[in-house]
Amino acid sequence: MFVMRNLLPLQVAVALALCAWLWIKTTAVDPLPDWRLGELVVIVPPAEMETENAFETELAEQFALQLQVRLKVIPLPSDQALPALVAHMAHIATSARSTNDYALRFGKAYQSLDELLICHSVTPKDIDELAGRELVVAAGSPQQAALREVQREHDKLHWKSRRNTSPAELLEEVADGKLDCTVANEEQLASSRNFYPGLGAALDIGSPSEMSWAFTGDTQLFDEAQQFFARIKQDGTLRQLLDRYYGHNDRLQTMDAETFIARTRTVLPHYKHWFKEAADLTGIEWQLLAALSYQESHWNPNATSYTKVRGMMMLTEETADRMGVENRLDAHSSILAGARYLQLLKEQLPLRMKEEDRLWMALAAYNQGMGHLEDARILAGKSGLNPDVWADVKRMMPLLSRPSYYQDTKHGKARGGEAVILVETVRLYHDMLKRLDAQDSFAQLPPVLKRSFVGRLME
Q: pTM surpassing 0.70?
């Protein structure tokens, strides 16, 4: 079943689907070349599993860089990934749980994820209470492997495996009441809850997935990968990547998510064109600017805080004067000024930083000021962390409220923890807006294009 709500931006989803389709067709004829000849072929999760797809793709990019070869990524669902690897259609399959079902080698785990049972109505408190309820998981997925482990101690446990689907799609069916129960890992569930607040309590089934890469018999490639993971664990790269893609997933309460989704339909349309204008002016995505505005004012042009910041982007008097804003309650002026101010802050940060880290730190400075951000960066450096990486700096920001830390800083005490909450929540709203916008873009396509797109995905 094709699920529109889990689309990436439409163009990306179409491109990935067509590339996968064409690759499978051509690979059936052409043998897989040796990666030493200059190209590494890696299987990653499909586009519907957005975060996992992006996380595994970036890991693969960094590994290919270490090998000094080109990277070719193939998005395939879990029930096709390992069989494709066995058939020598790729050199590596990512996001795998070790299994004896195939003659493959599995590297050391780089991510441990709890597998959780979740049901439409009341989730059982024990696996044995599942008797008589329909449980469906994605075929060939880590969730199916986890259930097999659990079945050893609960022999009455039964489930159905569905092909050509993903945990995210099954979670949507549970939320809509079309499916009784499914199993998903903690990150998949945390992300889905932001879109389907009705997903309630979950039961840890007691068989976590230790995620790793799968290989065929190439010993040199296997050894290179183990060295790669040892290095990125030691130098902090792996922790930073996990934070980038998963660190902001589970921050919204049910009521917050419901309110946000509702206001994207009722309030945001009145201001969306101004956020897009601000994006054209600054080069910052309109969804990010809208996410910041929602976090600051809930898109209320008349908002005023106890600290006297006001308007859609909650500008201080000083910032408004600096940006040439006469009336902070004018929504258009506020949005443009807030966007330009965020861009100004970003431009003050070193170009050696990665683009995303500059953006997250600019958001922290938007909240607490550049001086306090610099204090946190200095603390990060003194603590052996990387002052150019948000995942490290955000560990220092809350310490700015403690006398033992702020008394030795240039700019003194700050509510640094508030900046961290703002950045991580804005990141989450940003992701949600992009996914909701992709859904709306698909819904607006003419029926003939929708049928064509879905048909190509399902071929």
A: no
